């Protein structure tokens, strides 16, 4: 079973917002004491957090579907719904986050960095929050909106200062173990290392990290062997260390030919735009396994030729630790210089200016689309789409409230300018959306509710009949019934109808 995963796809569903509550408070001697519906709670967000204690994406490989909590619904007596808990997903430092189209969203290169990848739905307002001096007791509430449902890609790129590259079994893992306290798996067969190993090295006052990249072979940049899968982990490194095996027994191999193959693979690997090509970064060479007599002799023979190519060469032994101190301080010097250059670049970085949104910028756009029965006017925008999702379309008063909200941001005037007329088809939202037959004269909720604007029939002080009035009404009903019976009797005596005829019918 795999123990290291550096690329996964997550399927996320943020929590939906809770619905608001439409309720009227009822107390003794106050049958309609006013609206008291609470608001719905917001749904929980899904957040990625760069955690230095996490080193692999294995947990998300086995469980790629993640969901946050929903918001609670509002209740009467001004009780608001509970807010859904935020779901935090820890990822390793060095994780690149991409959307479903492959566009990079953020590079989590620092511990503690956070990004909201799926936003929870907004809770709907209860009728208590919607009450105004003109709308004293709304008979509706707003629905909660749906939380984001999306998929993202996570790609792990190891954050290390120095990358160790070389053929399989060149001694890279042994070098990590010798320079640091890391304990990678070490064996005497090729491709022992199946995932990058990190180690922390202390050289004087400088502390830096080294990464053991799985062995490269010829054609690795084209997908051969294991190196292609892990070459991406070299992208972040400040320097490269070529670990060359001087004691290999394979025919046709020597430190010079190994170095040529590795350099060609590094040259063929494309780095992301804006990064320094791999071969343009500082590089050192380490001739390993000089504790073997024949290997030491070979190292002395090829050292001059490698240095002639511009490399600084260090004969080392991970068994006897010979040459490791000089190598560690040389690497520390490269790392320290690279860090100083990055600080200088940050000091001259362009200033970021945040500009407020223009006052006259609209919150929506109208697209005119051709249809079978005429033009279709599509309204797109965060606000109108959210308002439509919050509307209880089975409630006429709620539909009128939606019309008021849309009119306030100028949608009706924009439809006029776009050429819409009475009866035109208007769609709010992408895709199927919500379809309306537009009526420009319907400008407020006054045409949809039975009571005048600013009043509510449920709160009217209706006249309550007195005992005398109820008694008179009762006698009037009895007199009317007696008169009806007398009229039937007169018709029977006149022969207009008989009881037998009625039974036959």
UniProtKB/TrEMBL annotation:
Enzyme Commission code: 3.6.5.-
Root EC class: hydrolase
Required cofactor(s): Mg(2+)
InterPro entries given in the database record: G_OBG (IPR031167), GTP-bd (IPR006073), GTP-bd_Obg/CgtA (IPR014100), GTP-bd_prot_GTP1/OBG_C_sf (IPR036346), GTP1-OBG_CS (IPR006074), GTP1_OBG_dom (IPR006169), GTP1_OBG_dom_sf (IPR036726), OBG_GTPase (IPR045086)
GO biological process: ribosome biogenesis
GO terms assigned for molecular function: GTP binding; GTPase activity; magnesium ion binding
Gene3D superfamilies in alphabetical order: GTP-binding protein OBG, C-terminal domain, GTP1/OBG domain, P-loop containing nucleotide triphosphate hydrolases
Principal subcellular localization: cytoplasm
GO cellular component: cytoplasm
Binding site for Mg(2+): 173, 193
N-terminal signal peptide: none
Residues annotated as binding GTP: 166-173, 191-195, 212-215, 288-291, 317-319
Record's function text: An essential GTPase which binds GTP, GDP and possibly (p)ppGpp with moderate affinity, with high nucleotide exchange rates and a fairly low GTP hydrolysis rate. Plays a role in control of the cell cycle, stress response, ribosome biogenesis and in those bacteria that undergo differentiation, in morphogenesis control.
Family statement drawn from the similarity comment of this UniProt entry: Belongs to the TRAFAC class OBG-HflX-like GTPase superfamily. OBG GTPase family.
Protein name listed in UniProt: GTPase Obg
Taxonomic lineage from the root: Bacteria, Bacillati, Actinomycetota, Actinomycetes, Micrococcales
